[in-house]
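Weekly modeling sync, notes
Attendees: S.R. (lead), two postdocs, one rotation student

Agenda item 3: backlog of single-chain predictions. S.R. asked that every request posted to the team notebook include the full sequence so nobody has to chase files. The rotation student volunteered to paste the first one in as an example of the format we agreed on. Action items at the bottom.

Example entry:
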Amino acid sequence: MSGGSIRLRLLLAGAAAILAALALAAVGLRVLFERHVERRAYAEMLVDLDQLAAGLSRAPDGSVTVTRPPSDPRFARPLSGSYWQVETDTGGPSRSRSLWDGALDLPDPAPPPGTPREDALEGPGGATLLLLERTLTLAEGGGVSRVRTAVALDRSEVRAATRAFVGDLAPYVALLAAMLIAAGAAQVAVGLRPLAKVGERVAAVRSGEKSRLGADFPREIRPLAAEVDALIAEREEALLRARGRSADLAHGLKSPLQALIGEADRLRAKGERAEAEGIEEIALAMQRHVDRELARARVASAARLALSEPAGVIDRLLAVLRRTPEGARLGWRVDALPGLRARIDADDLTEALGALLENAARHARAAVEIRASRAGGRVVIEIADDGPGIPPELLRTLRTRGVRLDLAGPGAGLGLSIASEIAAAAGGALALENGRQGLIARLDLPAAPPSS
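Predicted structure, as returned to the notebook:
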């Protein structure tokens, strides 16, 4: 069974083991109690047997009679379950009144003289009897005779006492089972607590609050934590190597692309406009891919541990944009929650917001509104301009899976593409929609705990 809950499996296994052990213990106690009751019954029957032997006497004709039977009143009550019987060599058996008109069918052979023997036999009504018998040797008047004395008890009395004991024992066994299962549940909870701590540490590493799991775990958990930390370290090294290779490749392509663009300018100057535009279109497309990969490589390795404050980034960007011709003509309204922090590198957030703000400045007529707030575990930054917006059919195209933003036309080119790539690498997303007056660009990013 590979799925399911470890806690539930441990609880079920523990409960099953406890119930099986208690059931076995209850059966053992029942057997021991029954044997104890039987021993007590035989001890009492031995007293009756001694009384029976003491009450024997020989008649003048040589026969043996019971002049003083045992004192237990059950021997005088018919079919009471307590019986005695005496057999001699010379006469028929004498028996208790409780046997009524029946007799005990004593097993052969008789026990040796003087030694009591325990046995079982079938009694009146098919009842199983506990039997205690002894052979006595009587010598009187020069003659010797053997007398076989027997006392029997209905075994149902032992069974009744055993059932009563089990009935009294059952509630305590059930209470003990409940207490042991509760103790087992507490033990499982305490035992699995380090695993819950591992889960919390992994979540903290994933969210960027911690870089490693650490070693402050019980001895059994430390190898797991060490392996996870080693895996994280290897992943970070692999990301750094991949980032370096991607950056090297991108930078290596920049110079040839610039040369192609320069060649296109020379062809255009010679009047070969079509050829120049073809080369320039291909070079610019390749340039967009290079810039995108540079942005992705930069963000991928740092996004997990990075933190930034959107309010500060927005203030720095607006301080620059207000000095540009496009930004100076606009009214900028900012509503950013103080102390709000996003889990993204400040430089990456600056580039993403810079692309969105520049896009808004190009298309806005008179004003741009910026809002930064927290929604659950996310930071939402909205940039709304009062420009013409984007045609609805292009918005639908932009939302189609696999379509690049930079292919959407004017106003949704390379800047929006890079902003989208940066947001995705940081675990967020960029959404575009038309508002009442213009375009709304909504940047959704994972939130970080506020600074203390």
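Discussion: group reviewed the output briefly. The first strand starts at residue 56 and ends at 58.
Action items: rotation student to repeat for the remaining queue; S.R. to check formatting next week.
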